[in-house]
Structures are given as structure tokens and as C-alpha cells.
């Protein structure tokens, strides 16, 4: 079933989110995107509690029929703290979806990167590391006419999660129009 309202989530230390609504022509429109920052002074427990409250508020405000979430790849994080923060946010989102009876749909990182043509690694010409986060922000800004800043990469990732999930459902795809 195609959801009327989709909440897309990028789990991490800050929670990226985007909200999509189905239009009469069956296309989806991006209606909100953002990042929920927790205070760095919070303990991990308090941060996750804050994420839970804010996620519950998003669910209450938008009443989504489905939640798409970037599938967590724990190996991509450099520190144990970052791994635990991402995994904790993923678990909180999983529980919030379950508590509200909303289906949760994991979206593979590889599918998201392929959908937006974003690859990391090293530049063959210069040998310098390619910043995949900046490339994703630029790709999302271009496709959806947004003006997200580089530090808003979690919001851009959430837009990419939603667009990739929607693309897997329909030929009409997603838009910001």
C-alpha cells in the first residue's frame, strides 16, 4: 500500500527527518525536512530520550502511514560512541514506529547513494578523499530546490531516504513542487 504521508529518518547523533505527502496525481511532495539536535551536554540516555520525545511529536504532528529509515551500517563509524549513538537512534525510531502501529521500512545505504549518484572514496586525479556527505547535500539541494547547508547533512540524508523509498514504490517519484 502506498502511504499518504511518509516520515523518512536518517538515524545518527542528530536525527534527520523529512515528511512527504502523496498528491492527487500520485506523486509525492516534500513538505518538511530538518534535523533534531540534542545538546552535547546530554548523557546518551538523555539524548535518546530527547530523540524519542521529538520523534513522537513528529508522528503526532504529521500522522504518517509509514516510516522509511536509513538502514544502519555500523561498520561505517569511526568511534564506538558514534556507533552506539546511531544504533540507539535507530532502536528508538523502531520502537516509536511500533508503539504507534506504523510500518517501518529500512532503506539500504547503497540504494540511496545509487539513486543520487553519490560515491565516496578517493578522487583518482588528486588522491584526496571525496566527502560523500557534501556531495549528498549538493545532490539533494539540486533535485529538490533546497538550500541546505553542509552541516545539515542529516536533513539531506533524510530527504534522500524518503526519495529513494518513494522511487521504489512508484514511477512518479518525489518532488518539491
Keywords:
single chain, 6 strands, Nucleotidyltransferase, domain 5, alpha/beta, six-stranded mixed β-sheet, globular, 5 helices, about 180 residues
Helical coverage, percent range: 40-55%
Structural class, by secondary structure, is: alpha/beta
Q: Quote the CATH topology.
A: Nucleotidyltransferase, domain 5
What is the CATH architecture assignment?
A: 2-Layer Sandwich
Rg calculated over all Cα atoms: 16 Å
Please characterize this protein's 3D structure.
It is a single chain. This protein is of the alpha/beta class. The chain has one domain: Nucleotidyltransferase, domain 5 (2-Layer Sandwich). Helix content is about 45%, strand content about 20%. It contains five helices and six strands. It has helices spanning about 45-60, 80-100, 110-115, 130-145, 155-170, and strands at about 5-10, 15-20, 30-35, 65-70, 105, 175. A six-stranded mixed sheet has the order 5-4-1-2-3-6, with helices on both faces. The two termini are about 25 Å apart.
Amino acid at each position: 500500500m502506498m502511504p499518504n504521508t511518509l516520515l523518512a529518518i536518517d538515524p545518527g547523533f542528530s536525527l534527520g527527518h523529512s515528511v512527504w505527502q502523496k498528491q492527487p496525481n500520485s506523486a509525492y511532495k516534500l513538505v518538511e525536512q530538518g534535523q533534531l539536535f540534542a545538546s552535547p551536554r546530554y548523557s546518551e540516555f538523555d539524548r535518546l530520550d530527547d530523540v524519542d520525545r521529538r520523534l513522537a511529536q513528529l508522528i503526532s504532528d504529521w500522522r504518517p502511514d509509514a516510516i522509511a529509515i536509513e538502514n544502519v551500517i555500523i561498520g561505517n563509524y569511526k568511534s564506538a560512541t558514534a556507533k552506539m549513538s546511531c544504533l540507539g537512534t535507530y532502536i528508538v525510531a523502531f520502537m516509536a514506529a511500533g508503539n504507534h502501529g506504523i510500518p517501518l521500512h529500512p532503506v539500504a545505504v547503497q540504494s540511496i547513494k545509487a539513486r543520487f549518484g553519490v560515491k565516496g572514496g578517493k578522487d583518482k586525479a588528486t588522491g584526496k578523499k571525496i566527502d560523500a556527505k557534501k556531495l549528498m547535500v549538493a545532490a539533494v539541494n539540486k533535485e529538490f530546490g533546497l538550500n541546505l547547508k553542509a552541516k545539515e547533512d542529516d536533513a539531506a540524508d533524510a530527504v534522500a531516504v524518503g526519495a529513494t523509498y518513494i522511487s521504489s514504490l512508484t514511477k512518479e517519484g518525489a518532488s518539491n513542487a
